Amino acid sequence: METTGIKDSLIEQTDGQETLSAEQLLMRDSLTGLDKYEVFLEKLEKGIGEIGDRRIAIVYTDIKYFKYINDTYGYQVGDVLLKDFVAEIMKNSVRLICCSRVYSDNFVTANFLREDLTNEAFRDYIHSVNLEREAKFREKYLNSRLQFCTGITIIDKNSRSLDAETVVSNANLARKVAKEMDEDCCILFDSSMMEGIKREVEITSRVPKAIANHEFQVYYQPKIETDTLRLIGAEALVRWQKPDGSFIYPDQFIPLIERSGQVVDVDYYVYREVFKFVAERMTAGKNMVPISLNVSRVHLNKMNILKYIQELFEEFQIPAGMIEFELTESIYLDNTERALELVKGLHKLGTRVSMDDFGSGYSSLNLLSRLPIDIIKLDKVFLKDMDLQESDKIIISCVVDMAKRLSITSLCEGVETIEQSDYLKEVGCQIQQGYYFSKPISQRDFEEFMDRKK
Ligand code: C2E
Ligand code: CA
Ligand code: CA
């Protein structure tokens, strides 16, 4: 293949050991021996100044699921992996201007590009190197998901006015875009990516006003008991209705406000609305079912959430059994200790906790036995086809069976057809949620739904 040819000619082994003076050591990252990031920026700045007719490629890479390695195998193994990774980078670096670890598992290199290589061919080359590294590392570190995410920006004399920090930040932006894609984890920066940033700033800057103006609304999606087809609960899902009446759906803004941290305020707003709703129905003597609330991963950073919920219980005086919390399985993987602390705190308040989106990401089965969760919510990926695939059927029935043995209730979301619903009944999945029963509906419609079911 052509890329292999390019690769062979690019690989150049580094020389043997260097002897460093005390001063040089101060300029290096102690773990990897690479230049400190400040030094990197200085060298890149100098490289840009001397660019002439050449091009410089800035390659920014991080290791997806690196934290998982640290958490699972310990920091020592994580450190060895980082050093191995550096050795790999150095093996593939010719015409290198400089190389540095920005922080944690984020690395950046800058090198002059060979004249005959197009920008796209260079990207393909880096992509092929990443794939090769992944195969090697997965074998060595027993982790089938480990992945390198790379953003590349290539500059020439026309971009000489850019400073080193801007150039690296462009490569980093491309890396972030790459990270959100499952397949193609190696992307060239292009200026349209700045549009995404602009939109992000636009949305996040409007959030405080939207909260004050009550533009966020809570919708409710019924949960149905498989055996009796009774309504036994609902999930609260936020909707953002702009003053012009149009809706923005959570997938379009939750990831953005998670990055800005504002999701905490939006969640608190939703929680308060739900508590108020439950209290009003109960005070009026109307029937009500438990409502589950989504918990963003961002709450783990501060952990004020428990105090806030406790205050809501004190203010609204509703039974703890009326509120449940949904934590995505990825939260547990991000930071198992904190997540465990949160689950225990929620249990202390008397509420039930579910593991949301189970099966959508890196499902860790042993996590199920380690965490005291009450409900497991099978992700809708298992029901992606109208006709259930044999393999999905096997997984569903195994997960349901396993949950049962661990005394965990199982719920399947995304149920859209009667066939799917019947299959879930057959394998003993206790609760179902999905468009087959109802889409998420406004509070008023949900009240009608409850009154009808009664
Ligand atoms: P989720 O927690 O997994 O919520 C379920 C999503 O699946 C909802 O999308 C729901 O409308 C959709 N859904 C339900 N049944 C079906 C079905 O039968 N077929 C299909 N194709 N989809 C179905 P929605 O409301 O757009 O929410 C998307 C995600 O946004 C949620 O995923 C949740 O992660 C997040 N989210 C929503 N509301 C909140 C909130 O108040 N706080 C936080 N932190 N996250 C929220
Ligand atoms: Ca959920
Ligand atoms: Ca879910």
What is this structure's SSE topology?
Blueprint: H1 2-10, H2 22-26, H3 37-49, E1 56-64, H4 66-73, H5 75-91, E2 96-103, E3 106-112, H6 119-141, E4 147-155, H7 164-180, E5 186-188, H8 193-212, E6 216-225, E7 231-241, E8 247-248, H9 250-260, H10 263-283, E9 291-295, H11 299-302, H12 305-316, E10 323-328, H13 329-334, H14 336-348, E11 352-358, H15 365-370, E12 375-378, H16 390-405, E13 409-413, H17 418-427, E14 431-433, H18 443-453
Parallel strand pairs: 4-5, 7-9, 9-10, 10-11, 11-12, 12-13, 13-14
Antiparallel strand pairs: 1-3, 1-4, 2-3, 6-7, 6-14, 7-8
Helix pairs in contact: 1-6, 4-5, 8-9, 10-12
The protein binds ligand C2E and calcium ion (2 copies).
Ligand C2E is lined by residues 221, 237-238, 249-251, 254, 263, 267, 270, 294, 296, 356-357, 380, 413-416, 434-435, 440.
Attribute tags:
single chain; 454 residues; alpha/beta; Alpha-Beta Plaits; TIM Barrel; 5-stranded mixed beta sheet; 18 helices; 14 strands; 20% strand; binds ligand C2E; binds calcium ion
Q: Please, could you describe this protein's structure?
A:
- There is one protein chain.
- This protein has 454 residues and is of the alpha/beta class.
- It folds into two domains: 4-13 and 21-190, Alpha-Beta Plaits; 198-452, TIM Barrel (Alpha-Beta Barrel), CATH 3.20.20.450.
- It has helices at residues 2-10, 22-26, 37-49, 66-73, 75-91, 119-141, 164-180, 193-212, 250-260, 263-283, 299-302, 305-316, 329-334, 336-348, 365-370, 390-405, 418-427, 443-453; strands at 56-64, 96-103, 106-112, 147-155, 186-188, 216-225, 231-241, 247-248, 291-295, 323-328, 352-358, 375-378, 409-413, 431-433.
- Mean pLDDT is 89; it is low at 1-17.
- Bound molecules: ligand C2E and calcium ion (2 copies).
- One calcium ion (CA) binds next to strand 11.
